[in-house]
Amino acid sequence: MKKYTQNLNCNYCGGDGYVQLLLGGSETCYACGGTGKKAKEKQC
Ligand SMILES: [Zn+2]
């Protein structure tokens, strides 16, 4: 049974920092910039 923990990883790449391309290979995730972490919302 898995523990349900708050996922702080990027929703787009799942924390890998890159995304798999359908055509093959991979590229840096534009959503997190390769960090794999969910982008923080800036508060003014
Ligand atoms: Zn990402």
UniProtKB/TrEMBL annotation:
InterPro entries (UniProt xref): DUF5351, HSP_DnaJ_Cys-rich_dom_sf
One Pfam family this sequence matches: DUF5351
Protein name as annotated: YuiA family protein
Naturally occurring in which organism (per UniProt): Lihuaxuella thermophila
Lineage, top ranks: Bacteria, Bacillati, Bacillota, Bacilli, Bacillales
